[in-house]
Specification:
- The complex is a heterodimer of chains A (130) and B (112).
- Chain A has 5 helices and 5 strands.
- By secondary structure, chain A is an alpha/beta fold.
- Chain A has a single domain, classed as Hypothetical Protein Ychn, Chain: A, CATH 3.40.1260.10.
- In chain A, helix 2 links the parallel strand 2 and strand 3.
- In chain A, helix 1 packs parallel to helix 2.
- Chain A is globular and about 45 Å long.
- The relative contact order of chain A is 0.26.
- With 112 residues, chain B is an alpha/beta fold.
- The N terminus of chain B is likely disordered.
- The chains are: A alpha/beta (130), B alpha/beta (112).
């Protein structure tokens, strides 16, 4: 089956991100195709490229990147939810006159229409809320 | 009744089966009450994260109307030191079982 995950909880604030990552691994392990993880609301903080958690804790950002690298899962971040929380890629940063940027590939900033498409295209869409 | 509004959920004569996933403990707001009101037909209930507290015997009576359709996530029971303390009406599933439940249901609805 083709799966997608919607993640709306911030990393390290609630268990949502950990639950979603564990579920994502299990989906792939059962032989399904995980098309995308969509980061929305506070979930966009999972895309922060500057995240530096203590070394003895799970590194969620790296966990998502590994999922992309190993299984081609696309990591889509709602651009409107991201910009208002200070999360933006290099292009948006220069467009808004900001000195630095906080999101980089493989995370991509996309419109909310992508989430609608996932709901329509995938066999299963599973949400992890805060 | 509000229940009846949900009962009519059908597509082309075929009833949609929903897996309801709850991540809030019974003492956190009215999430679990709302889920039980919304459930119908052959819908299933899966408790995860702090929601697993709802599977303890003292709290499990509210799910008594769902025989054979109550599940609780093993990893979240275990990380809270509650494994084997769940009510016997709840079946324990691991994360693979969670995926399996989403395969069997037509849709998954998360309550948080």
């Amino acid at each position: 089956m083709r799966y997608a995950i919607l993640l709306m909880g911030a990393p390290y604030s609630t268990q949502a991100s950990h639950s979603a990552l564990r579920f994502a691994r299990a989906v792939v392990a059962r032989g399904h195709r995980l098309e995308c993880v969509f980061f929305y609301h506070d979930g966009v903080h999972n895309a922060a490229r500057l995240a530096a958690p203590p070394q003895d804790e799970p590194h969620l950002v790296d966990g998502w990147i590994a999922l992309h690298t190993e299984h081609g899962v696309s990591l889509q971040v709602c651009i409107a939810a991201a910009l208002r929380r200070g999360l933006m890629d290099q292009r948006e940063a220069s467009r808004h006159g900001k000195a630095g940027y906080s999101v980089e590939a493989p995370f991509e900033l996309v419109g909310l229409g992508q989430l609608v498409d996932l709901g329509l295209d995938c066999d299963r869409l599973v949400t992890f809320g805060p | 009744m509000e229940r009846d509004r949900w009962r009519g959920r059908e597509t082309g004569g075929e009833t949609i089966v929903i897996l309801h996933v709850v991540n809030k403990a019974p003492d956190t707001g009215k999430t679990l009450e709302q889920v039980l009101t919304a459930m119908s037909g052959d819908d299933s209930l899966l408790l995860i994260e702090d929601g697993v507290l709802g599977s303890l015997p003292a709290l499990a009576d509210r799910c008594a109307g769902l025989p054979g359709r109550c599940y609780v996530l093993r990893e979240d029971l275990e990380s809270r030191g509650l494994l084997a303390r769940q009510d016997e009406r709840f079946a324990v599933v691991d994360i693979e079982g969670f995926v399996s439940l989403t395969e069997q249901a037509d849709k998954t609805v998360s309550w948080y």
